Amino acid sequence: CPFNRAAKSSPPAGWRRxxxxxxxxxxxxxxxxxxxxxPLAETGTSVLGHLGMSGQLLVQPEDxxxxxxxxxxxRFDDATGTELRFVDQRTFGGLSLxxxxxxxxxxxxxxxxxxxxxxxxxxxxxxxxxxxxRTTVKRALLDQSLISGVGNIYADEALWRSKxxxxxxxxxxxxxxxxxxxxxxxxxxxxxxxxGGTSFDSLYVNVNGESGYFDRSLDAYGREDEPxxxxxxxxxRRAWMNRSSYFCPRCQRPPRTSA
Length: 259
Description:
CATH class of the largest domain: Mainly Alpha
Strand content: 15-25%
Number of helices: 5
Largest sheet: 4 strands, antiparallel
Number of domains: 2
CATH topology of the largest domain: Helicase, Ruva Protein, domain 3
Number of strands: 9
Radius of gyration: 21 Å
Strand order of the largest sheet: 1-2-3-7
CATH architecture of the largest domain: Orthogonal Bundle
Helix content: 10-25%
């Protein structure tokens, strides 16, 4: 299989990238936000992966049947008899090879901030940066250079729990208010992890093919016209940055400056 998506239109380049892996040894996998990478020992490079919407990284026996949407295969020269497979139906994800920064990050994601579940996430720095950003609160939550790993669904859930409208200016958030929001972001992400994530179709599954069940616990996202679980007011949906924002018009009142 080609090493990454770009190889589909340029096979020779793809195979050259694959050849760079031959004889190399993977170190312990690392993660930042939605990116996963495997450092290559003593080379200063890493194999960087992003699953996109439906990708999976599977460790399979070499003699296991190929998955229907197998895109990449990495064989190991050891006695385990296993191989690493990247499977992706929608092909929004991929693997690529990159140089590392002095901090050990693949260079293309050096701008990505830590996620709120990272033990080294700096709460105080996040709260200060949040107030300095001349933007709105949901835009800030989706800004990967400020905080990573928070997607559209979990942003809506955290904002609902915080009783904050998605268009609330970040400059108006006090330090206690931003700390409360960050706490709700962590609670939402931990609850989603406990439920196996959020699956809206058969492609959103874990490595064992199992769906996540957090969608059954959503309080905001996807609940247009359903009663708010806090006050009973019908939930609303608004188009937002080519996405949707779900909120309670009573619990999450829009800022006065918002149209």
